[in-house]
Amino acid sequence: xxxxxxxxxxxxTFKKSSYEALTYAQDLAAAKNxxxxxxxxxxxxxxxxxxxxxxxxxxxxxxxNLDIFSAEAYSNTIAKIANEENASIVIISNTYSGKxxxxxxxxxxxxxxxxGVVSLPADDLSVKKTAFSNKAMAFVKxxxxxxxxxxxxxxxxxxxxxxSPSIKEIELDIDSxxxxxxxxxxxxxxxxxxxxxxxIVVSGGRGMKGPENWGMxxxxxxxxxxxxxCSKPVSDMDWRPHEExxxxxxxxxxxxxxxxxxxxxxxxxxxxxxxSKVICVINKDAEAPFFKAADYGIVGDAFEVLPxxxxxxxxxxx
Amino acid sequence: MRILVCMSVVPDTTSKITFKDNNxxxxxDGVQFIINPYDELAxxxxxxxxxxxxxxxxxxxxxxxxxxxxxxxxxxxxxxDAIRVNADPKDALFVATQIAxxxxxxxxxxxxxxxxxxxxxxxxxxxxxxxxxxIPSINVVTKFDFENGKVLAAxxxxxxxxxxxxxxxxxxxxxxELCEPRIPNMRGIMAARTKPLxxxxxxxxxxxxxxxxxxxxxxxxxxxxxxxxxxxxLIDLLRNEKKLI
Lengths: 318, 245
Ligand SMILES: Cc1cc2nc3c(=O)[nH]c(=O)nc-3n(C[C@H](O)[C@H](O)[C@H](O)COP(=O)(O)OP(=O)(O)OC[C@H]3O[C@@H](n4cnc5c(N)ncnc54)[C@H](O)[C@@H]3O)c2cc1C
Ligand SMILES: Nc1ncnc2c1ncn2[C@@H]1O[C@H](COP(=O)(O)O)[C@@H](O)[C@H]1O
Prior knowledge:
The complex is a heterodimer. By secondary structure, chain A is α/β, with parallel strands linked by helices. Chain A has two domains: about 1-180, HUPs (Rossmann fold, 3-Layer(aba) Sandwich); about 200-315, 3-Layer(aba) Sandwich (Rossmann fold), CATH 3.40.50. Chain A has helices spanning about 15-30, 50, 70-85, 95-110, 215-225, 230-235, 265-275, 300-315, and strands at about 1-5, 10, 15, 35-40, 55-60, 85-95, 110-115, 125-130, 135-140, 145-150, 165-170, 180-190, 200-205, 225-230, 255-260, 280-285, 295-300. In chain A, a hairpin with a 4-residue loop joins strand 8 and strand 9 (about 135-140). In chain A, helix 3 crosses helix 4 (about 95-110) and helix 5 runs parallel beside helix 8 (about 300-315). The termini of chain A are far apart. By secondary structure, chain B is an alpha/beta fold. Chain B has a nine-stranded mixed sheet with strand order 11-10-9-12-8-1-6-7-13, with helices on both faces. In chain B, strands 2-5 form a two-stranded antiparallel ribbon. In chain B, helix 2 (about 70-75) packs across helix 5 and helix 3 (about 90-105) crosses helix 4 (about 125-130). Chain B has six helices and 15 strands. The longest helix of chain B is centred in the N-terminal third of the chain and has 16 residues, at about 35-50. The chains are: A alpha/beta, B alpha/beta. The interface between A and B is large, with 97 and 81 residues. Adenosine monophosphate binds near residues 61, 89 and 123 of chain B.
């Protein structure tokens, strides 16, 4: 029996979240005496990398209708391989793509499924998952024999292995009548770091006064290798695109470092960011609720504080 | 054109989350329940499509009788009728199985859900239902229109956006940006009183997941304040003390 990991990649390069999923699977496999099979769909250049992060064997499927992501074709493929490999557990990242295929895979396999997973199963086999928009955690146990887990990016540390996995490349023709969606256009912000996977996030709120002031947020983010985010009103007013809105009704993130500038720290905002490992808050109001959830705080005007941070970050870079 | 909207009823976003019975149950004392915010978007979008295509909108909820005030609210916003599957919504697969049974009997052209319920945050029901009904599912849509017999949609993808086309029947999950949620008006509230709300009993399907216990996030140790005059110290601390940058 094996654990199957769906290794997501972005235009041929594996995502960090895939390595996290592989490490997670390898730790789980070691405890249960199983092996880990990584499955990559489409053309990828660095299949060997999968062995470096915990895959005992690698399967790469290519074929018509698999170049562009489709929930139907991808879930069919994953379920087919899970059956051939006799996989008892399937690990998929808790990303947009992962979440659109994982439930379909679960139904096909007759498996139970848990999304938002942040821990390995405990002794009682329950795993910890986010709940109540990160205001709490739940311990959930699946009763089914087969299981699908969606692992939250940045919740499991990547480890290095030196496996030399067997690599099986398979050509598979997906019957086009089984795919009912047709991709018309994909637009990705180039050079930008995806918010859900970013290790550092710099975020601005209404205290930034207007979209014309975001240059400072972007400059600091650029220097720190961070993604940018914002509070809900900021995206509601179209100062920033809605994909940047974090919180209970926006994206949930858990970077290693979250820097919030001019954000008050409303309960709905905190819900989306409070599992960040270190939180820094910059706000001119010493009473802003966000300070209660912060590790570091600066009471001050963003327009005076940010330039200092930027200057120091520049110095260190040079 | 028949449209089904899946609606969950969740704690208001301002609720303080606490647990009881040794952290095994959500403490609902003093908690106000609302229509899941994403489901309000799904409902509004369904109404827009129904109005343009001479269609009807049915709302379905898997829940106990205490969800009925919120189901009436959905009827007041404009749904034609509602179905309540009389069961405690134990886990996503249980919920999806119940909805799939109703959907199979009624042949909906379009089914809409929310991106996720803000209580259990599964974000699974859309995909589960898609597979249970063997219809295509489109997650996290920011645009969803029915034109010339097919669906034109846009969805959030990791780091970007995809526009796509899909045949009906299909299912999609609503994301912010999809539309502005409608609120009920007086006429709607009056009309809702007499709109049909059918209660059906659940099928005896098993649930797959057991919620064993809950925990609250660890409180922060306390904040370390840095004087604004020496703000650059923050960068040094993050670098030397925390090794984050
Ligand atoms: C159903 C619902 C869902 C919601 N979901 C979300 C969500 O997902 N995400 C979210 O973010 N919000 C959400 N909200 C909104 C939330 O309640 C708050 O209104 C919002 O987070 C406030 O955004 P803000 O902190 O940017 O603005 P404000 O609350 O206006 O705070 C601005 C802050 O900036 C500070 N400030 C002003 N000028 C300066 C300056 N020059 N320098 C430094 N600081 C300055 C002020 O002291 C203040 O603390 C939701 C609300 C509802 C009702
Ligand atoms: N008990 C329920 N009854 C009806 N629909 C539900 C229920 N729970 C979840 N849903 C639908 O499924 C979506 C996603 O929920 P979840 O998978 O629980 O995050 C919600 O936005 C609703 O549209």
